[in-house]
Amino acid sequence: MLSFLSPRAQAVLRLRHGLLAEDDERPRTTGEIAQELGITPESVTAYERDGLRRLQALVKGEARLLPYQGRVTISLGGADAPTLEGQQRQDLAQERRERLVQAYERVREQGVRVTIDRLVEVTGVPTNLVAAFLRELRGKQDYRTGTAEEQAQAHWQRLEKAYRQLVAAGTMPSGQVLARQAHTRQDTARAFLKAQAQQ
After folding, report:
1. Cα–chain-centroid distance for residue 101?
2. The pLDDT value given to residue 71
3. Per-residue pLDDT tens for 53-75?
4. Which of 2, 20, 50, 123 is the most buried (most CB within 10 A)?
5. What are 32-51's pLDDT values in tens digits?
């Protein structure tokens, strides 16, 4: 059933619950997983929570399996799945907002620049909601700005991190899978894979 989750969620759950191989059944701590996958402990918690929520929903019949970008995934919002009504929707929005506020403050305390990508990674909240949160919080600036060199370096680091996560999950990354995982274009992901093959 884990194969129906995103590669990151698969890797986190396999490491967290010792589901790697018969000779390596030791469950890892959140810190160990974060270090191994190159993500923050908050992201580990978010991926674990989301993966378990999706698996539970599937077992309870509250989710469906749907094809998505060449593989089958668990959909929480299909035609047969229940939709959020009034108070549930408000509760979810409030919970996400609280997570974003806490993550925003933590990132600022660390003295690191707050960006959309960083908050998405830390909270697991979708990019469009993080962008709306930052616009509301700080005005209508572009939080992906920086010099072209800084942007390219951050982009390459995101590709490297996604590549490591896919390999850790036992997935041989293609351009399409890597692009989806790193939130980038397929031609950029293919160029990255070509560079990796030449090393």
Report:
1. 18
2. 76
3. 888 888 877 777 777 667 777 87
4. 123
5. 988 888 888 888 888 888 88
- Tokens at 151, concatenated: 């942007």
> Quick one: tokens of 183?
């939130």
**Distance set, CA 172 to CA 23, 144, 164, 178, 181 (Å):** 22, 29, 10, 9, 12
d(CA 75, CA 60): 13
Map tokens 């850790």 to a residue.
168
CATH code that applies to domain 1-79: 1.10.10.10
Q: Which residue ranges make up each domain of the chain?
A: 1-79, 84-144, 148-198
